[in-house]
Specification:
Chain lengths: ~325, ~450
């Protein structure tokens, strides 16, 4: 009986210790926490604390040089009545939808293209060339695009005029500026998505294609019934990160149009920058950031929810 | 293989892991700790007392928008002439002109960056003064008879006054600019067009443009004139010559709906959209096109001489801007060196301010093709005339009828608002009236905020 009681006590004692600590010595715990400490400290300092600080700033008036003052719901009321915020979110929505769609479409098509059988040298040259814009600084690329798209004496308009067409204000008119900015973003970023999709394509077992071919499947069938379903986990990841990336785009637009003409290409992150670092309205900038944060979280959750319907794991 | 060998002793893997973890933690703690004050650095006082221990150099950091290459000789001279000061000059970028530069300065100061001496132009002066970033120099000048003599007698009153706020001298004037017409003498000669006179009017100017332009959409296209499509300074080169301005005379209200503003903007828009003698300024590389012979005239300040010197381009001359009503006027703006309220050692900062504003520094700027020197004695030196086209004298001569560029405290907000609506005029997307109405609507609440303090 005594043995049984002692055993029960030991079991109860063991159960009261959290599973992760069970069997772990103090020095091991210290070593473990010490290893994660750098990441934890930097995460806290550079992510968690700023997020919390910006949440507090939503209720503050702060111009970066004088101490913040409590402003209650003023910033939220300002956001609700800010006509520019609506225009800017409309621009952002169009940018995000088109940039995400074309980045992923082109990324997938390019990945399928460079995944085909070809000479090794050609394959590597092609992949490098397509990935090259990702490696180059945005400022230098934007200079080149500015040179190409300038309304007067720009290369593209010069070519258009040679075939009898009128020059277009690619970057100087509201009608075309957002299109140009999206085109620049797609040209620049699709190489990165190509690499992601390429990794996804190469993870598909060749035996599946061989089996399908034996059953008489054509090229379209192979794509429709093997490639497409099996690439969906990669596509899901690519869509999520490209969507978040598109919503956070700053440098592309800043160096190409600075958000103009008027507010035609002003996206939400540019607006947050303008509020925070040009007008020094940190409280309202934090409020605009909060709206972006909430929208991105909602979109990501929706994507995860919808992913159950269209993402197939082997 | 659970043991690693270090020297003579054997170490268990656990000990190795523990040591690695402690090292990592130690490095992280050290990295996150506040930086130790450099040896000999003065404690933050801001009181104007020299705080460095005897024999130690005081570090003074000065920041400017100007090219650092121009300041290399001054930095070298400082080693000899300022033996107790370790002078560091940094460049602060000016994205979007002075409004962007002012924002960058505020951001740097707010970020805790040490800036002791700051160059700022009138456009950003009131913002920095309003934020208590600069301290008045009056007491320092009063206590320094030699400098008082220079400022009173060698710096034009207009320049001194431009850098005063509420009667206090906030900066030591270093250089200034106006806007004049640069024209390619070779193109004028080739087309048989008489070079402009100082008294030319807008009608004369338009006639000249029509004679010089050759725009067909081909590779040899030549535009007659291009202007800054935005920016308070560039636009007022035209507005002042029509006796108007974007802001009221005291810079406290919008004047965007003034018919003369509309008349001026319409005149410029017609050059692009109707007469096709000017390009849309957006994305237009004015410097390259002027030097390449694809542009006959442009409006710029003296700093554009620097680009022409670098490009070895010399077939050009200068003339005043054409005017529409009244007498000739030129827009003007001054920059200077001021002392930051956060300066670690304001006595040393004053020494640096004087040093960076002296004749040698001014001559360096003139040689590099920079702005017009604030010191009259330098503007009258041979070096000023040598580093410029034949009519270079008009730069300094214009000072008597110069009009200060509107520079309200909220310049960094006003300028971007106006800019973003101007571009819609040049592209033909909006009429002058529509664009100015939209700009006015945005500007009014900002000016009201300014008036409310």
């Amino acid at each position: 009986m005594q043995t049984t009681r002692r055993l029960n006590e030991t079991v109860a004692e063991t159960q009261s210790v959290p599973t992760r600590l069970r069997g772990m010595r103090l020095d091991e715990m210290i070593a473990g926490y010490s290893f994660v400490a750098p990441a934890l400290i930097s995460l806290t300092l550079f992510l968690i604390l700023p997020i919390l600080a910006s949440l507090v700033l939503v209720f503050m008036r702060y111009d970066v040089l004088t101490p913040p003052e409590w402003s209650g719901l003023d910033n939220l009321q300002q956001a609700a009545s800010d006509g520019r915020l609506g225009t800017i979110y409309w621009n952002t929505l169009r940018f995000v939808v088109f940039a995400t769609f074309f980045n992923n479409l082109l990324g997938l098509l390019l990945a399928m293209g460079v995944n085909r059988a070809m000479y090794g040298v050609v394959r590597y040259l092609l992949r490098t060339a397509l990935f090259f814009p990702v490696l180059t600084t945005t400022a230098s690329l934007a200079l080149v695009w500015n040179f190409l798209l300038a309304q007067d004496r720009g290369v593209v308009n010069f070519l258009l005029q040679q075939i009898g067409l009128e020059p277009v204000g690619w970057l100087s008119t509201s009608r075309w500026a957002l299109v140009s900015v999206i085109a620049f973003d797609v040209w620049r970023a699709c190489g990165y998505l190509m690499v992601l999709y390429l990794a996804g394509l190469q993870a598909i077992s060749e035996s599946l294609y061989e089996a399908a071919k034996i059953d008489g499947a054509g090229e379209w069938d192979l794509f429709r019934y093997i490639t497409l379903p099996l690439i969906t986990p990669t596509a899901f990841f690519a869509v999520v990160i490209s969507l978040i990336g598109a919503a956070q785009v700053f440098d592309n637009v800043w160096v190409l149009t600075e958000g103009g003409p008027a507010d035609a290409t002003r996206l939400i992150v540019l607006y947050i920058y303008e509020l925070g670092f040009r007008r020094f309205e940190m409280g309202y900038a934090a409020t605009a950031s909060l709206t972006l944060f909430l929208i991105l979280v909602t979109l990501t959750l929706i994507q995860f929810r919808l992913s159950r319907r269209w993402v197939h794991y082997e | 293989m659970s043991e690693a060998t270090f020297g003579r002793q054997k170490m268990s893997r656990r000990t190795l892991l523990r040591l690695s973890a402690m090292t990592t933690l130690g490095v992280t703690v050290v990295a996150c700790a506040p930086a130790a004050a450099p040896s000999g650095a003065a404690p933050a006082s801001g009181s104007g007392e020299v705080a460095a221990p005897a024999g130690e150099k005081v570090t003074v950091i000065a920041t400017t928008q100007m090219n650092l290459e121009q300041w290399t000789p001054a930095t070298e001279r400082a080693l000899e002439q300022l033996p107790t000061i370790d002078l560091k000059i940094t460049q602060t970028a000016m994205p979007g002109g002075w409004s962007g530069y002012s924002d960058q300065i505020v951001t740097q100061i707010a970020g805790g960056e040490q800036l002791d001496v700051i160059m700022i132009a009138i456009e950003g002066l009131r913002l920095l003064t309003n934020r208590n970033i600069l301290v008045p120099l009056d007491d320092l000048i009063a206590g320094d008879p030699a400098e008082q003599e220079v400022i009173q007698n060698d710096v034009h009153q207009t320049l001194r006054e431009m850098l005063q706020v509420d009667g206090k001298q906030m900066e030591y004037p270093f250089s200034w600019n106006n806007m004049v017409m640069y024209y390619n003498t070779a193109i004028f000669a080739e087309q048989g067009v008489t070079p402009p006179s100082a008294e030319w009017t807008w009608a004369d100017f338009q006639e000249t443009c029509l004679q010089l332009a050759n725009v067909t959409g081909g590779a040899d296209d030549r535009y007659a004139y291009s202007f800054w499509g935005e920016g308070m300074f560039g636009m007022h080169a035209w507005l002042f010559n029509n006796d108007t301005s974007f802001l009221s005379a005291d810079w406290s209200e919008s004047n965007l709906l003034d018919p003369k503003v509309a008349e001026t903007l319409q005149f410029l828009a017609d050059l692009i959209l109707v007469h096709k003698v000017s390009p849309n300024p957006a994305g237009w590389d004015e410097w390259a096109q002027f030097h390449g012979g694809h542009l006959a005239m442009r409006t710029c300040g003296r700093w554009c001489i620097g680009g022409s010197l670098a490009a070895d381009f010399s077939t050009y001359d200068l003339q005043y801007q054409p005017h529409q009503v009244g007498n000739i006027k030129t827009v003007a703006g001054t920059d200077g060196w001021g002392i930051a309220s956060s300066a670690k050692d304001s006595a040393a900062a004053w020494e640096v301010t004087k040093f960076l504003s002296n004749k040698d520094a001014s001559v360096d700027m003139v040689t590099f093709g920079g702005n017009i020197p604030a010191l009259r004695s330098v503007a009258e030196m041979e070096v000023f005339a040598q580093n410029g086209p034949p009519n270079t004298g008009i730069f300094y001569e214009s000072l008597d009828f110069a009009k200060t560029v509107p520079s309200p405290t909220n310049f960094n907000i006003v300028e971007p608002i106006i800019n973003k609506h101007l571009v819609t005029i040049w592209s033909g997307e909006k009429s002058v009236e529509e664009a100015m109405n939209a700009a006015h609507e945005e500007l009014v609440p900002e000016m009201e905020k300014l008036q409310q303090g």
